[in-house]
Amino acid sequence: MVAQVIAVEPFDLVVFGATGDLAIRKLIPALYHRDADGQMPLEASIIGVSRRKLSSEAFRDLARQAIAEHVSAQDQTADAIARFLARLTYQPVDVTGEAGWQDLAASLAASTRILICYLSVGPDLFGPICDRLGACGLAARARVVVEKPIGTSLASARAVNDAIGRHFPESRVYRIDHYLGKETVQNLMALRFANALFEPLWNAAHIDHVQITVAETLGVEGRAGYYDTAGALRDMLQNHILQLLCLVAMEPPTSLAADAVRDEKLKVLQALQPLSHDQVRQSVVRGQYGPGASASGAVRGYLDELGHASGTETFVALRTEIANWRWAGVPFYLRTGKRLPARLSEIVVAFRPIPHSVFDTSAGPIRSNRLVIRLQPDEGVKLFLMIKDPGPGGMRLRRVPLDMSFAETFAVRNPDAYERLLMDVVRGNQTLFMRRDEVEAAWRWVEPILEAWAGADEAPRAYTAGTWGPTASVALIERDKRSWHEEMA
Ligand code: NAP
User: Which residues does a 6 A CB cutoff place in the pocket of ligand 1?
Assistant: First the structure.
């Protein structure tokens, strides 16, 4: 199956932090793919910026290497690589100083193309870059793209947003949460709003509870310095998991226009039941991995990897509710962690049990339906239904998934989230980007958890690397007579 590709308008994309990890692993490969698929017009140009003194030729060599390492061999063709590299130039600029900005502005002065400034740098540089883009006149017409984390608290998120907002109106700010660019995440909207089947059941009358899990097998590896200042709650839950929760729980938007969708997501964040410090103790589990095992063998604990004592959590699980008509009383269980037994992101919508059984249940219980949306790996959707076991011998029932694997159903490469998001910036489509009030509402809800932890003199609960977190996480859901979803027929 060949996907239809419509070329975007010509653009100049300035990537600040073009020599960094995100640019090399994600942005350059994503841009290469869009070019190779014919989506970039001939005039599109990409300008790399960072402090390192490189020539444009040396930057192209870096990009060539990035493609060799991060694009599958079958998608690399000499023509496409040559065409892509010809778009690249490089300007060394220390964004905290004055030098280099006028050269950058001069190189873009004659262009009438769409101008995009992608800030692939630490968040402490967002303000200085925006100020200088303002001073050299580029902010007046540019779109700005920023990466998470937007702050580490409500106050710092506001400060970052203020710094950006001094030079860019909200209509030209694109805050990336790359989860929103994942095909399966967008499919959530397709599932909910392009099928008549689910929406009538999508409420407290028919849904028993929802689980969202984002599990990683890796430890903190080379990112220990950053991670120790963030932790699982700030790094994953405040942004990715709450965004997924919004898409599951929001009301149908009036259209797919950016603000129509974002208005509905915001209402979900505003309806999340606030957690008092007492409730944090009861409904939030904070964990940190100790030594254990992964698929590759024995692994060290977090503190060993870090090299010093730390109270930073590498795991968080919590139970929350959404206080509105649709969801009143339906628990949402959220969990994320590092050094868990599997790398997986999935949303489980567990329907209520049937009201009465006409079957002889001595052979086993009638298990309630579940819709499982797998975001990674093996993207797909499974609907677990009760089915009769084939053969004579009475009505033996079994829960079996109706299984739609993306890889099997669509014989096309599953594009990386950044491909979609980068082209959406060029199209001027903000639907999949977080608006300022969403980011701040998410921080407002998360902050009491951080405060309760800071005020309590308790270390995170230890868990063995390679297990599903502290036992308190199992107890959290079992207290409600439910259990975390495990794949089963
Ligand atoms: P990184 O590897 O540390 O790269 C930072 C980049 O910024 C480098 O190119 C660096 O190059 C440049 N830089 C630093 N100081 C500069 C200055 N004063 N002037 C100009 N350039 C400067 O960071 P990263 O992992 O790519 O992350 C970039 C952003 O994306 C961060 O906000 C991060 O939180 C976010 N993010 C990253 C990932 C990921 O997977 N890496 C995922 C989600 C979000 P020079 O040292 O040569 O200047």
Answer: 17-23, 50-52, 93-96, 120-123, 147-149
